Amino acid sequence: MTRAAALLALAVVLAGCGGGTQSAGGDTTTAEIATTTAPSTTAQGPAGCRSVAAPKSKPDGGQKAPKEPLDPAKTYTVAIDTNCGSFTIKLDQKQSPHATAAFVSLAKSGFFDRTTFHRIVPGFVIQGGDPTGTGRGGPGFSTLDPPPSAAHYTRGVVAMAKTGAEPPGTAGSQFFVVTADDAGLPPDYAVIGTVTKGLPIVMRIGALGNAQEQPTQPVVIARTIVAEA
């Protein structure tokens, strides 16, 4: 995929901020979501990932935005445990106070558990956080943290997905991790942090996409663990 084609795809597909009322965000169909309720481990799969069944689609929406931002005096990290390994995000609550508070709230509630990375664009981004697995789902609310004009989306940066029609910095539950050296994106997406541990795991997941930006095997988030220091 060329950079121009990837950027065009991103503008169309990075979506699902607010829930079922948002415009269509991805190409994954509900038929691709298996009926098991949890990832059951089987044999070792390609690229060092455990082979698991895709989880059942979870209900869209139904969540409430947190009323308070995160404690600015604390450091927050979120570990994301998948069948391909674990990686840790250090949150930047100063840059995106509303989106990071929502991300922590959703993680603590188990919202991300048993969901998938439904969109994988090799050499660009991996995208997850949709309870439905279709690219169209969200928590039922959105937040707004307009990013600075100097925002850059380089390898390991974690930002929130949005539809092209929404204002810059709009966020729901769908997030993406950049696997390119520099994704070349405009400053439209709320940056919530950086991968500080397990970047090779992110790159492993990033290799599991096809030309249609679909995962070549299920990449399932088993759990998310929030730590404060």
Describe this structure in words.
The chain is an alpha+beta fold and 229 residues long. It has 3 helices and 13 strands, in the order αββββαββββββββαβ. The strands form 3 sheets. Strands 5-13-3-4-12-9-11-7-6 form a 9-stranded antiparallel beta sheet. A two-stranded antiparallel sheet has the order 1-2. Residues 1-9 and 16-44 have low confidence and may be disordered.
Q: Any idea what the radius of gyration is?
A: 16 Å
* Quantity of strands, as a count: 13
- What is the N-to-C order of secondary-structure elements (H for helix, E for strand)? HEEEEHEEEEEEEEHE
Number of helices: 3
Per DSSP, what share of the residues sits in E-state strands of 2 or more residues? 25-35%
> Cα distance, first to last residue?
41 Å
Structural class: alpha+beta
pLDDT averaged over residues = 85
Q: Residue ranges: pLDDT <50 for 5 or more in a row?
A: 1-9, 16-44
